[in-house]
């Protein structure tokens, strides 16, 4: 075995890395949507394989040089059977020795090598975990767009659309979100439809119901773009409050440990990320806060640990440093 | 022609009435879901026909005695073509002379014969209209569960579920809604699942995602049942605020006129209905408020008007009085 395999398979894109037992990243590959629940097993397996073979090619290795691997993905707790991806990997000449892990755990270990701490992820969905002894001790939210994912991209985007149409509909004060939404959908203002309402309202409604509900997350950036707008400010403040409560749900008195933030809403600095970091700091339960772009470093950490390789500060630094050179 | 036909076709049930030109109801029939958008054209046509033939049988009339009719249903503005129901009626020996009208307008005319005023309906969905000269002058909301229907049964029910699971998930203070929801779903408390969370949380999530989103409206009654609970009180107060804003969107300065309330959330007295009535009263734009169970009286009013029969106070009283005897 020359290297272990870490894969971070998401709903939009998939990342694979090959890392040797010193923590040096030898190859890195990227592909499309790799979550079997949202993309379908066949498509997901094909994208994951594409990322893995790209990483092998970059590393200049043979498929037989690749040791055991970890596939981090959402839903791994509910469907822990890895048979669908094992057979795809075996078909490509790999050992197929791969185990599934939580994408949240991979996010956590993308920010720290410590065995205990917290992770919050707010992308399309939103979830938090407490990690103890390297495994998920407690999870919160991640209950999906219909009844949970509070503070997520979906949650923010759905509110953007609701507030934008309420203003168009005369049920709320005007907001900059309306113009931003019409622009985003390529809908022009003007004209009346049969019920005395603006034609644009009917056009927005038609356009939005053609999307899958989770796709409303694409309108979340409009809330960040509408600087100073009352409705947008309120939406983002409520999202930050919800994510601070999410941290509160996984935080444990006495466990002062790292907090890792991931997902499009928290990975970059924004009013939401800043407010969540301030609230987490104020709890006194956070030793450091890291923002990470994805879970691929953590997938590598989990793959090394699973292969019996301890990951300390030096190994962790080597993973992140050498991966940065490959991306 | 012995009688005109009024049909109120809803997403759950359909009502048909035959009324003579003096406003006397001669026959009344009921059947299942008659909205072609939610139930499908074939099923809707069959249910409507079933209600109509029952009304004809009760009246002791022949199909050929039935004059022109009005079919009131949601979505009639978007799909005004009545071909699908005309051919079904012709197949049963009727003239097939039927026109579609807004279900909201039928609700309005179920509460008043005056040509101007307002109607608010909050059932599974929520919408409001301003009526002038007997037609819809302006509509508001009715934009569906994903982006509108604020204050509706869906809107309340979805919040009941969200608050109930947030409490189970440690993201919110305990609420009586959790126990009420578990009871409603037949889920027992107890046991932990893999992520350190209660098994009941996973069971609720599974059960709720098996429903169509609008079916979350079935949990709205739990908010009314949880007397004094903080979360339930807040949900109902927000629903009442939203419905008061909906009235504000259709209310017109200078137009002091009747307000008709319909739909399960507003047709009976409740904290929500009372708050909406108080807000509407305070506007000074409401001459009287009526709560109505459905739109079948209004469908009869619209059918008479469409046949050239003026509907005054005496005719309106005769319709409601004689229909009450048939139901």
TrEMBL record, chains A, B:
Q: Where is the ATPase BadF/BadG/BcrA/BcrD type domain?
A: 5-303
Could you identify this protein by its name? ATPase BadF/BadG/BcrA/BcrD type domain-containing protein
InterPro entries given for it? ATPase_BadF, ATPase_NBD, Euk-type_GlcNAc_Kinase
Q: Spell out the PANTHER family in the cross-references.
A: N-ACETYL-D-GLUCOSAMINE KINASE
